[in-house]
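lol ok so funny story. i was supposed to be doing the assay writeup but got distracted and ended up predicting the structure for this chain instead. priorities right. anyway since i did it might as well share w the group, maybe its usefull for someone
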Amino acid sequence: MRMSSRAPRTGYLGGMDERLDRLCRALDSVLLGKGDAVRTLVAAVLAEGHVLLEDVPGTGKTTLAKALARLVGADFRRVQFTPDLLPTDLTGGAVFRPGSGEFEIRPGPVFANVFLADEINRASPRTQSALLEAMEEGQVSLEGRSLPLPKPFLVLATQNPVEFHGVFPLPEAQMDRFLIRLELGYPDAATERRLLVERPVPSIDSLVPVLDLEGLRALQETSKNIHLDPELAGYAVALARATREHPAVRLGISPRGTQALVRMARSLALLAGRDHVLPDDIQAALVPVFAHRLPLRDAGGIEAVRALLSGLLRQVDIPA
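and the output, tada:
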């Protein structure tokens, strides 16, 4: 890649927006010791992206989703996905009213600002696919009508990566609908000790909103307008193309994936208080955005994908 000789931009927005700072701090107080994961999640929200939370039970996935909704004043709904869950259990449907002799549309739980699909891979593919239109189009089709979902609309889906019985793996088309895949992981020993001794974590009900939905929508619009230099756009494309040419990759990153990388990089720049994207933002977004989109020819796990992406970062030239 040709290296740029242009002087770098130095524009700042005066540091992290105070509302975002309060949001991150409040989430940090709920999910101790996971500052990087919290900021990655907030960046995904700013990028208007859906999030796949993949981790073992008991690491705080549901708590994080509830806290996020509470702190931004969002309407929250949670559905436990099971093999017998039907698409209409998510989207709703028509209910007959004998008094009027007419059908009334009754929206389902997906009509929320923050929708938590708990253990999404336990539901049938038919039910999983019911989320596709909602995630991609921001609407649901009911009884021949297209009903818009509230804005903002965020799907947080959890799945347990070590469960293999009674689950239906998400197809690649649906995995691609998630902007990022996020792991929380176990807390370190000191943090886990604090949880047992000090009990410092506030309850969800005690959290006070630090941002309203109107303010969140405004910040999402700001994120879209963060400057991306053409050289950095080329850097993002080069990274995506490198996955398509890698012999270990069965299916390389699509153009949608490249767009997702840039959206996430813009949001990370906004969180850093900058009005422009740096190479560091693209590199920080690479694994959360690309890893779940990269099926390998050999059945390698997430660590193999991370190693592959780390190798690509060393191989692809960084614009000056």
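DSSP finds twelve helices and nine strands in the chain. Confidence is low (pLDDT under 50) at residues 1-7.
back to the writeup now i swear
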